[in-house]
Amino acid sequence: MDYNQIIFTIVTVVLLLLLYYLSILPKKKQEKEIKKMQDELKKGDKIITYSGLSGTIEEILEDRIILSTNPDNVKISIEKWAVAGIDDRDIKNK
Length: 94
What we know:
Blueprint: H1 3-39, E1 46-49, E2 54-60, E3 64-69, E4 75-79, E5 83-86
Antiparallel strand pairs: 1-2, 1-5, 2-3, 3-4
């Protein structure tokens, strides 16, 4: 190998490592945090889903959640993975 090939290989490896640490690693950390939040859900939590539905948890099954929506208290069943986060907004029934 000549000197230019060695330098090119080192620069390529460094760039790939930099790409990993700047893009892939933070995404994995965020996915872990979301999974932890989904596993810690409990009855009475107000949640919002990735599709925009929001409501209060009525019951938690193994991999599903029974959600009571506002304002009519319609109960629907959703997958746990569909929960995007805790909804801390104050929703008032009219």
